[in-house]
């Protein structure tokens, strides 16, 4: 089997150059999806017969909350790659994903809370879904502060990788919390064909655009922060010196 | 279109606070996590430029002497 792609991916220089070529396309697609998604969601989606126009919140809350669950698995995979193969780039991903994940989780909690205050009649309730998501927020802050406390050492990288792997247990709890504990939070959004027939395309098509937009945003933000971290870590290498001189 | 006037759109059927605060937070969230790294990138490149310029004269001066070559890489 040819493993050159794996070593190439581990090369910060290679990643920096390639991601520079991808970024304009990613940003263009994100702006397109975001514009279509937001205009559609705000102006054209019909009112919900129970929730009225608060159903607009759905189009921000669902994409952000569902993608917030991707952070621990992503950091665990990158952390494993770092622990096993000592790939430096993988540790960079673990480092930059943690604060972004905290932002995603915070927005998921806040948007859910503002949605709930009128539809559930309360800002907060200690149900399984909400509590486990709040735990994820604190775990991500934990990963961020672990890195700061250990001052970017080799030990910090290893500790963060381990905490990321352990943190995945909580993702399983978040995912199944709505099935295990039958409390206030509704079950997961159903993306199957049966659901498409119950809710017309005017409901779910804008959601697809918003999910794509938030996924692209997630990729773009991660790539931008990864590039910044690479520049700082590789500041003594020839290619960074040349790149800085050219700019 | 679900609204017949701009006024009605802003009022969001009585849920103006809920809807607009969520979309407002979403806008802040996007801006912080895109513009933040972009600004940081400019800042890093500026810092590195200054750093290389500070180290460059030491490097050329040290080409004949061997001891001060240590200072080239790092100053922190």
Summarize the structure.
Chain A has 247 residues and is mostly helical. Chain A has 10 helices and no strands.
User: What integer value in Å does the Rg of chain B equal?
Assistant: 27 Å
**Backbone structural class of chain B:** mainly alpha
Largest sheet of chain A: none
- Our Rg estimate of chain A from Cα atoms comes to 20 Å
| SSE succession of chain A | HHHHHHHHHH
Q: Helices and strands of chain B, in N-to-C order? A: HH
What general form of chain B does the structure show? rod-shaped
Give the low-pLDDT segments of chain B: 61-76
**What is the helical fraction of chain A, as a range of percent?**
over 70%
Sum up the overall morphology of chain A in one term: globular
Q: In percent, how much strand structure appears in the residues of chain A?
A: under 5%
Mean pLDDT of chain B: 80
* CATH T-level topology of chain A: Four Helix Bundle (Hemerythrin (Met), subunit A)
| Number of E-type strands of chain A | 0
CATH architecture of chain A: Up-down Bundle
Main location (chain B): membrane
GO biological process, one term (chain B): heme transport
Subcellular location (chain B): Cell inner membrane
Protein name (chain B): Heme exporter protein D
Can you walk me through this structure?
The complex is a heterodimer of chains A (247) and B (76). Chain A has ten helices and no strands. Chain A has 247 residues and is an all-alpha fold. Chain A is globular. Chain B has two helices and no strands. Chain B starts with 5 loop residues before the first helix and ends in a 15-residue tail after the last helix. At the A-B interface, α2, α3, α5, α9 and α10 of A face α2 of B. Chain B: Its main location: membrane. Chain B: Belongs to the CcmD/CycX/HelD family. Chain B: Pfam families: CcmD (PF04995).
């Amino acid at each position: 089997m040819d493993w050159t792609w794996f070593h190439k991916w581990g090369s910060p220089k290679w990643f920096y150059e390639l991601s520079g070529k991808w970024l304009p396309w990613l940003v263009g697609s994100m702006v397109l999806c975001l514009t279509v998604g937001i205009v559609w969601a705000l102006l054209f989606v019909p009112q919900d017969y129970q929730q009225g126009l608060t159903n607009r919140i759905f189009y921000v809350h669902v994409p952000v909350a569902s993608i917030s669950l991707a952070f621990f698995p992503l950091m665990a995979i990158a952390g494993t790659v770092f622990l096993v193969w000592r790939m430096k780039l993988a540790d960079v991903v673990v480092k930059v994903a943690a604060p972004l994940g905290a932002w995603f989780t915070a927005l998921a909690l806040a948007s859910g809370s503002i949605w709930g205050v009128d539809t559930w009649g309360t800002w907060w309730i200690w149900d399984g879904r909400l509590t486990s998501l709040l735990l994820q927020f604190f775990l991500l802050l934990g990963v961020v502060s672990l890195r700061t406390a250990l001052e970017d050492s080799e030990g910090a990288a290893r500790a963060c990788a381990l905490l990321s792997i352990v943190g995945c247990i909580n993702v399983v709890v978040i995912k199944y919390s709505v099935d295990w504990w039958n409390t206030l939070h509704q079950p997961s959004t159903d993306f199957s064909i049966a659901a498409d027939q119950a809710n017309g395309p005017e409901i779910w098509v804008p959601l697809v655009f918003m999910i794509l937009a938030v996924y692209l945003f997630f990729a773009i933000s991660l790539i931008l922060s990864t590039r910044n971290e690479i520049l700082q870590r590789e500041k003594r290498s020839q290619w960074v010196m040349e790149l800085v001189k050219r700019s | 279109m679900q609204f017949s006037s701009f006024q009605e759109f802003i009022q969001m059927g009585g849920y103006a606070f809920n809807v607009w605060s969520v979309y407002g937070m979403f806008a802040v969230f996007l801006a912080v996590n895109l513009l933040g790294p972009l600004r940081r990138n400019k800042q890093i490149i500026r810092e590195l430029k200054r750093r290389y310029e500070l180290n460059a004269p030491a490097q050329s001066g040290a080409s004949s002497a061997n001891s001060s070559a240590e200072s080239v890489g790092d100053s922190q």
